[in-house]
Write a structure and sequence with these properties.
By secondary structure, this protein is of the alpha/beta class. It has 31 helices and 30 strands. Strands 22-23-25-26-27-28-29-30 form an 8-stranded mixed barrel, surrounded by 4 helices. The chain has a 6-stranded mixed sheet with strand order 16-18-19-17-20-21. A 5-stranded parallel sheet has the order 2-1-3-4-5, with helices on both faces. Strand 13 and strand 14 (360-371) form a beta hairpin. Helix 17 crosses helix 18 (450-465), helix 21 crosses helix 22 and helix 23 packs parallel to helix 25.
C-alpha cells in the first residue's frame, strides 16, 4: 500500500536521503513551517509527517503545537528529526503527539528500518480505518433502513455534540419527531415530550440511570414543531459503552399514532353504542325476514316504545312485531323492505304502531339486510325510534308555515308551493285569482288603532270563508289582502259574478267605517307559477278598482291595458337601477320651482324636483317613477343624487350673490327611516360645504302614520342643525290636529287640492283660509302649492298665507333659467 508523506526541513541532504530510502511512496517536501501547514491544508490525504525541529521560520515544536490544537490532524502520524541529543525537546515532542524521535545523522539502514516500521503502522491504520468506515457505513445504512426510530444516548436535556459524542439518531426518529438530529440533541427528549407523559417517563429514566432497572417500555407522545402529536411505543435499554462513558442507553420508538386513533375510535364507538342503546328513544332489533318480523333480539327500549317487554316479543312468544304495526302500514312496510333488499340499500321508513295501551305512535325504522354467503337474506337489523314528538312539531311547524296566524287561512307561502305543483298540470282547466285589496283600511289603523283593524280583518276572513269551495280556496297573502284561487270555472262572467257577490258582502261590512276596497281578477295561463309577478298583476287590477270607484267595493279584470302598465313599470325599474348605479349618467336631473314670499313679493327659495328622461322612455313623470323608486328602495341612491344636485345649486346661488335663497328637497319615509340617513346627510353637507340654513326638507304628513314619535325625533335632530322642515300636502294626511301641534317643523305646505277649490267655491265657503289660520295657530308658516291664477294669489294674500308656488310664478326651471329669474326679480325690485 502506498502512502503520502510530507518531509519538512531545510537540509537538502537529509531530504535526499529520505527520498532515496522510501522512493516508492509519494513524497511532498516543505522548507518551512508555514509551507508545511499550507501543504497539509491542501493535501488532506497526507498520512505521515517527517518534521525537522530546526526550521528557518519557526521551531518544529511550534508546528507540533499547531497540529495538536487542530482535531483534523489527530490521526496524522508524526516523526521528528533532531540534530542534537536534547532530552527536553524529545519529551516535548512525544507530549505533542510525535510517534518517533530520530537523531541526526542517522545510519541509512537504521533510518530505513524505522521509517519502514512507521510506514507499516500507517498502512495498518489506513486499512483499519477503511474497515471501520465500511462497518460504520453498514451500521448507518442498517439503522436508517429499519422501520423504527432509534436513539443512542438521547439525553433528557439539551447537550452538545462534544459532550455527547455517542449520540446517534436514525432517519425514522427524525421523521417521527419532525426534527433533525442536531435539533434533537439541542433540545433533549423532555422538551418534546407531551407534558402529560413527562412525569411517568422521568420516573422510569431515573430508575434506569440509578441502576435500579435495566430497561423499560411505555406509550408516550411527542409534540412536533407544528404542534401536532405523534404516539410512539418506546423501549429503552441500558447500554455500557466504555469506561469513559460508563452510563448510556439505547431507545427504540415505534409510531403507533394510527393504532391509537383506531383504539380511540373503537373505544368511542363502544361507548357511543352503549350510550345510544341506553338513551335511544326506541329500540334496537334483529329479526327474521318473514311476515311476522319474528324478533330474535330486541333492546330494553322496546318497553317504553311499545309497552311490551323483550320476552313478550322474542320468537313471537305473546305476539309478533307485525301485530304492533298499525294495520294500514303492514303491507306497505313489507313492500318497502322487499324493494330495499333487492337493491341491498339501507332501509328508512316512517309509520305508526299501536302500543300495549292502545296509543298510536309515529316511529322511524332504520335498518339493513344481513346476507349469507349465497346472497340470501339471513336477518334484518336496525333501530326503531319514537318520532311522535317530532311529528307533532313538524305538523305544528307545517301548519304555522302554511297558515296565517291571525285568520287561520292558508298563507302566501302555501299558495306559492301549490302554484308550482299545479303549473302545467291543468292545461285544459281554467284557473284564476280573485284578489281582495283592503289597503284603504290603513286610515282606520291611524284613527282607531291596530287592534281595531285586526278585528276587522278577522271579520273579513269569516265573511269570505262562506265562499270557499272544493274548486275555490281562500288565502291571506298580505296584511290587508286576501285571494281566492279558483279552478274549473266556466267563463269570465262567473268570475265577475263571484266578485260582485263578495263586493256586496264587504260593502255591507264596511258601511259604517266609510272605506272601500278593490277586487282584482286575473286569469292564469297553464304554466304560470311566478307568484311575485302574478301578485303584482293582481295588485294593479285591485288598485285600479280602488282608484276608479273610491269608497265602493268593485271588481276590475287585469287586461292588456294593465299589462302595458306592468311592462312599462318593469322598464322604469330597469332604467332607475341603471341611473342609480351610474354616477356619470345625466338621465336623472333636477329642476327648481320658485317659491314667492307674499310679504316681500320676492323669490325666497326653490323646491328641487327630480326629473327622469331616458332614450327608451322619454320624459317620465315623477308621479310615475317615484313610487317605483320607493318600492324598489332605489329612492335611496336616487334621493342622494338629488341632494347633491340641490346642494351644488345652493353654492352656485351663493356665488351669484343669492346667499339668502333656500332650496328644499322632498324625502320619502324609506330615506328618513334609514339609520344612517342623518349621518350621511351631514357628511354631504360637509363635503359640499353648504350652509344648513339654506336647506329645506319636505316630508309628507302621511309618514307620521308609521311611527309618529320616532319620526318626530328624527326631524327634531335635522331642525336643530338649522335645516328648515316643511310638511308637504298638509290637509290631506292622517294626523290629528293635536299631533300637528307637536310636530317639530317650520312650515306647512297647503295641498293643491285646497288651492284648486278656490276657483270652484265662494270665498266665504272656502276652508283654505281656515287651514292657514290653523297652521299659524300651531306655530307654523304656510306655503300654498299649485297657485296658477291671480285670484288664488289674492285670496291667499288676504288670508295671511306666507308663501306660494305654482305656475303663476313659474314652471320648474333648469339652474340657469332659475338664476336668470332671480336676477330679473332683483332688478325689478331695485
Amino acid at each position: 500500500m502506498l502512502i503520502k508523506i510530507l518531509f519538512v526541513g531545510d537540509s537538502a541532504s537529509s531530504m535526499l536521503i529520505v527520498e532515496k530510502l522510501i522512493c516508492e511512496h509519494c513524497i511532498l517536501t516543505a522548507c518551512s513551517g508555514a509551507e508545511a501547514m499550507r501543504l497539509l491544508g491542501e493535501h488532506r490525504d497526507i498520512n505521515l509527517l517527517i518534521l525537522d525541529l530546526k526550521l528557518p521560520d519557526k521551531n518544529g515544536l511550534q508546528v507540533l503545537r499547531t497540529l495538536k490544537r487542530d482535531k483534523r490532524y489527530n490521526n496524522l502520524h508524526k516523526i521528528i528529526l533532531a540534530d542534537c541529543d536534547d532530552e527536553d525537546s524529545e519529551i516535548k515532542s512525544f507530549k505533542l503527539g510525535a510517534a518517533d524521535y530520530i537523531r541526526k545523522p542517522a545510519q541509512p539502514d537504521l533510518l530505513l528500518a524505522r521509517l519502514e516500521a512507521h510506514i507499516a503502522i500507517v498502512c495498518a491504520q489506513e486499512e483499519l480505518v477503511k474497515k471501520l468506515r465500511k462497518i460504520s457505513d453498514a451500521y448507518e445504512m442498517l439503522i436508517n433502513q429499519v422501520p423504527v426510530g432509534i436513539a443512542i444516548s438521547f439525553n433528557k436535556g439539551p447537550s452538545s455534540s462534544i459532550s455527547n459524542e455517542h449520540f446517534t439518531i436514525n432517519a425514522e426518529l427524525e421523521r417521527i419527531t419532525g426534527r433533525t438530529k442536531e435539533e434533537l440533541l439541542a433540545l433533549g427528549w423532555v422538551s418534546i415530550t407531551h407534558p402529560d407523559d413527562v412525569d411517568e417517563n422521568m420516573r422510569y429514566y431515573e430508575k434506569l440511570q440509578a441502576g435500579e432497572i435495566d430497561s423499560y417500555a411505555m406509550d408516550k407522545r411527542f409534540i412536533r414543531p407544528d404542534g401536532s402529536v405523534v404516539w410512539v411505543y418506546m423501549i429503552v435499554k441500558k447500554l455500557v459503552l466504555d469506561e469513559n462513558y460508563s452510563y448510556n442507553h439505547v431507545a427504540i420508538f415505534k409510531d403507533i399514532t394510527e393504532r391509537k386513533i383506531v383504539e380511540k375510535q373503537l373505544s368511542e364507538s363502544e361507548r357511543s353504542k352503549s350510550t345510544l342503546l341506553s338513551h335511544l328513544p326506541g329500540m334496537a332489533y334483529r329479526c327474521k325476514y318473514d311476515r311476522d318480523w319474528t324478533i330474535e333480539y330486541v333492546s330494553s327500549g322496546c318497553v317504553k316504545l311499545t309497552g311490551y317487554t323483550p320476552e313478550n316479543l322474542i320468537n313471537n312468544r305473546d305476539l309478533s312485531y307485525n301485530d304492533i304495526i298499525a294495520p294500514e302500514y303492514q303491507e306497505v312496510l313489507w313492500n318497502e323492505w322487499e324493494r330495499i333488499l333487492k337493491g341491498r340499500q339501507d332501509f328508512r321508513y316512517e309509520y305508526e304502531i299501536i302500543t300495549a295501551s292502545g296509543e298510536r305512535k309515529w316511529v322511524l325504522e332504520l335498518g339493513q339486510g344481513v346476507f349469507d354467503e349465497n346472497g340470501e337474506v339471513e336477518a334484518l337489523e336496525g333501530i326503531i325510534i319514537d318520532i311522535s314528538d317530532r311529528k307533532a312539531v313538524e305538523d305544528a311547524l307545517k301548519y304555522t308555515n302554511e297558515h296565517d296566524n291571525l285568520t287561520g287561512l292558508y298563507n302566501r307561502e302555501y299558495l306559492e308551493s301549490l302554484l308550482k305543483k299545479d303549473a302545467g298540470k291543468y292545461k285544459k282547466i281554467k284557473r284564476a285569482f280573485v284578489g281582495i285589496n283592503l289597503s284603504t283600511i290603513q286610515i282606520l289603523t291611524v284613527n282607531y288603532g291596530y287592534n281595531y283593524t285586526q278585528d276587522l280583518i278577522i271579520k273579513v276572513a269569516e265573511t269570505l270563508c262562506k265562499y270557499r269551495r272544493d274548486n275555490c280556496e281562500l288565502f291571506r297573502t298580505h296584511e290587508n289582502r286576501f285571494l281566492f284561487y279558483m279552478k274549473n270555472y266556466k267563463d269570465k262572467n262567473e268570475l265577475f259574478e263571484f266578485s260582485e257577490s263578495i263586493a256586496d258582502e264587504l260593502q255591507a261590512l264596511f258601511i259604517t267605517d266609510r272605506v272601500g276596497g278593490g277586487i282584482g281578477i286575473l286569469e292564469l295561463g297553464a304554466d304560470e307559477s311566478d307568484m311575485n309577478l302574478l301578485s303584482r298583476k293582481l295588485l294593479i287590477a285591485s288598485e285600479r278598482a280602488i282608484n276608479l270607484f273610491d269608497k265602493e267595493f268593485k271588481a276590475c279584470f287585469y287586461d292588456a291595458e294593465l299589462e302595458a302598465i306592468v311592462d312599462r313599470e318593469a322598464v322604469i325599474r330597469h332604467e332607475l337601477a341603471r341611473v342609480a348605479a351610474d354616477d356619470s349618467c345625466c338621465d336623472l336631473f333636477v329642476q327648481y320651482q320658485p317659491i314667492l314670499d307674499l310679504k316681500t313679493n320676492s323669490i325666497c327659495g326653490f323646491e328641487a324636483l327630480a326629473r327622469l328622461h331616458t332614450d327608451k322612455l322619454g320624459l317620465v313623470s315623477p308621479a310615475e317613477f317615484i313610487p317605483i323608486a320607493e318600492e324598489t328602495k332605489l329612492i335611496v341612491p336616487i334621493g342622494e343624487k338629488v341632494f347633491i344636485a340641490a346642494f351644488r345649486f345652493i353654492n352656485r346661488l351663493k356665488e351669484c350673490g343669492f346667499d339668502d335663497i333656500n332650496v328644499s328637497v322632498n324625502i320619502s319615509a324609506i330615506q328618513l327611516l334609514r339609520p344612517e340617513f342623518i349621518d350621511r346627510l351631514m357628511d354631504l353637507i360637509r363635503e359640499i360645504n353648504v350652509n344648513p340654513a339654506n336647506i329645506g326638507i319636505e316630508i309628507t304628513e302621511s309618514i307620521f302614520a308609521a311611527d309618529y314619535t320616532f319620526i318626530n325625533n328624527i326631524i327634531s335632530k335635522l331642525k336643530d342643525t338649522g335645516i328648515q322642515i316643511a310638511i308637504d300636502d298638509f290637509g290631506t294626511g292622517y294626523s290629528s290636529l293635536a299631533r300637528e301641534k307637536e310636530l317639530n317643523v317650520n312650515s306647512m305646505k297647503i295641498d293643491k287640492y285646497f288651492i284648486d277649490k278656490l276657483l270652484e267655491e265662494d270665498d266665504e265657503k272656502a276652508i283654505t283660509g281656515d287651514i292657514i289660520s290653523i297652521a299659524h295657530r300651531l306655530g307654523h308658516s304656510t306655503i300654498a302649492e299649485g297657485v296658477e291664477r291671480e285670484e288664488q294669489k289674492q285670496y291667499l294674500i288676504a288670508h295671511g298665507c306666507d308663501k306660494i308656488q305654482g305656475y303663476l310664478i313659474s314652471r320648474p326651471l333648469d339652474e340657469d333659467d332659475a338664476i336668470k329669474l332671480l336676477k330679473k326679480h332683483r332688478s325689478k325690485k331695485m
